[in-house]
């Protein structure tokens, strides 16, 4: 091989190595280290939901020297039609830019071109551009509810335990609502962090004795396609046992001297429920 050609190959490899010295440390919703022209898969998101892309501002310059701060802003170069983005505030660390999916986006894989910017090229970093892929799907969470058979006294609240497994990349709120209980119209808005299982309690009650079939719905506040509904049964009986059980559902406002008696009554109700399998 001619010596001049070998020299050109050496110079080309050296330039490529220097160019790849500059990197972007992506910190969320997944973690990875990217170089210019790289790509990353971020995860699942539902139509209408928002998510954040986070990255550190530190990097190395063209000579391999660590530079902090280096990147000054994270922004979108392009995104799918109907989507919107907000660049990270200038000089924020970590940089955090917002992406909102179109509520009309069909299910599928989409990509955005994102860019880390060294404003004015002050640190001699230029810009670093990469492709971010996301999977648009309504399948971004699952819920476990229990118990589905409830028992209480009239006007006594009982708690429904709700566990939300957020498998998407959005931290948008969920709303918990009961439908079918007389005069009950209370909703609870909760935050279930992405890539996490979060537990909540949702109280329900009815003033009159009877058996009440109702539904509990857990739904995204930003996506009409993300919701689940669960059938429930509430049996309301007026008896001494339910009065004892209700002590454990709320706050007792009474003289301190009566607290030992309340504790004993609550213990009796627990022992009865264990003995009868309730």
Give a quick precis of the structure.
The protein has 278 residues and is an alpha+beta fold.
Structure commentary:
It is a single chain. With 278 residues, the protein is of the alpha+beta class. It is built from three helices and 19 strands. It has helices spanning 3-19, 240-246, 259-276, and strands at 24-28, 32-34, 39-45, 50-55, 59-60, 66-67, 73-78, 84-86, 95-100, 108-117, 127-136, 141-146, 149-152, 158-166, 174-179, 187-190, 196-204, 210-220, 227-236. The chain has a five-stranded antiparallel beta sheet with strand order 2-1-4-9-8, with no helix packed on it. Strands 13-19-18-15-16 form a five-stranded mixed beta sheet. Helix 2 (240-246) packs across helix 3.
Q: Which of globular, elongated, flat, extended, rod-shaped describes the shape?
A: elongated
Largest sheet: 5 strands, antiparallel
Structural class: alpha+beta
CATH topology of the largest domain: Immunoglobulin-like
Number of DSSP-assigned strands: 19
Number of helical stretches of at least 4 residues: 3
- Mean pLDDT across residues: 85
Radius of gyration: 28 Å
End-to-end distance: 85 Å
Strand order of the largest sheet: 2-1-4-9-8
CATH class membership of the largest domain: Mainly Beta
β-strand percent reads: 35-45%
Order of helices and strands: HEEEEEEEEEEEEEEEEEEEHH
CATH architecture of the largest domain: Sandwich
- The parts where pLDDT drops under 50 for at least 5 residues are 1-19, 249-258
**Fraction of residues in H or I helices:** 10-25%
Count of spatially separate domains? 3
């Amino acid at each position: 091989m001619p010596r001049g050609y070998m020299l050109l190959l050496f110079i080309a490899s050296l330039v490529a190595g220097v160019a790849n010295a500059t990197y972007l440390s992506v910190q969320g919703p997944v973690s990875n280290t990217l170089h210019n022209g790289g790509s990353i898969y971020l995860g699942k998101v539902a139509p209408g939901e928002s998510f954040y892309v986070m990255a550190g501002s530190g990097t190395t310059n063209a000579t391999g020297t660590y530079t902090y701060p280096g990147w000054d802003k994270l922004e979108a170069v392009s995104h799918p039609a109907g989507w919107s983005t907000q660049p990270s505030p200038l000089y924020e660390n970590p940089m955090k830019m917002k992406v909102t999916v179109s509520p009309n986006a069909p299910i599928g894989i989409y990509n955005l071109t994102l860019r880390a910017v060294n404003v004015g090229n002050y640190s001699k970093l230029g810009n670093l551009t990469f492709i971010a892929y996301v999977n648009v799907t309504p399948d971004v969470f699952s819920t476990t509810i229990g118990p589905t058979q409830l028992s209480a006294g009239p006007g006594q609240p009982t708690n429904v335990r709700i566990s939300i497994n957020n498998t998407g990349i959005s931290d948008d709120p969920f709303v918990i609502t009961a439908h079918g209980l007389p005069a009950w119209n209370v909703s609870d808005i909760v935050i279930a962090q992405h890539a996490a299982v979060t537990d909540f309690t949702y109280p329900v009650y009815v003033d009159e004795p009877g058996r009440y079939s109702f539904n509990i719905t857990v739904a995204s506040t930003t996506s009409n396609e993300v919701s689940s509904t669960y059938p429930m049964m509430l049996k309301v009986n007026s008896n001494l046992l339910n009065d004892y059980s209700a002590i454990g559902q709320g706050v007792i406002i009474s003289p301190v001297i009566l607290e030992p008696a309340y504790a004993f009554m609550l213990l009796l109700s627990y022992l009865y429920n264990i003995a009868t399998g309730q």
